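Supplementary notes (optional reading)

For those who missed the lab, this is the record we used. Protein: 3'-to-5' oligoribonuclease A. Length: 254 residues.
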Amino acid sequence: MQEVDDATYQGALVIVTDTANAPRISDERFAMGDKLIKIDHHPNEEPYGDLMWVQAAASSCSEIIAEFWQLFPEELHMTKEAARLLYAGIVGDTGRFLYPASSPHTLRIAADLIDFGFDYAALNRQIEQISRNVARLSGYVYENLQIDPSGAAYVTFSTEMLENYGVSDAQTSGVVPLPGTIENVLAWAIFVQQPEGYYRARMRSKGPAINGIAKRYHGGGHDLASGANVRDLEEAQKLYEEIQKACIDFPANN
């Protein structure tokens, strides 16, 4: 990641993307700027910034930014590399256009970006590449996933286990979609222990809304893709029980 010194932040216009609330902004120096713009596609339940552009129905912030370019094609110059990166952002956030947030508008924007001539097939392959260690972790998920008759499921990664597999916390994001490939699994959580001892809960769903659950555990997100934090395995169990209830209630509500 590019290093940015304090002087660059001082008095600057700071733009934060894909971050639902201020505490999740990765660099606290954003507060040193004169103005702050929030661009996001999560529900705007914790507003921040001097200007907010939030489209909760958008598939990704990349879609929002590409749409901004489409609105002002004469004023804004789109390069081949910028188009490639925006396309990658859309593909990543939509799970290769598998998630419900992938709308006809999303696909049209992706097509417009492809028109810039980058090798989108090679980019798709690159996005899907995983290390051998992550491949081994995928096997662990399938082998150890606990599945409830309600359709709820979970698996837990301790820091010791991740160290043994040679996988970082960030790399675990690559295995989060895997439980959804199993039939009868409706919603799931992957609990990843952090060095401080607490657990990050990566939550996904194929139907039941889970963002309300995430909010009750210091998190939030979309209806079908959210994140939360729990103090320990006891609290993780309580979160999972709420996922179970959401799965049980889902058929009755649909």
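If you only remember one thing from this example: The first helix runs from residue 6 to 9.
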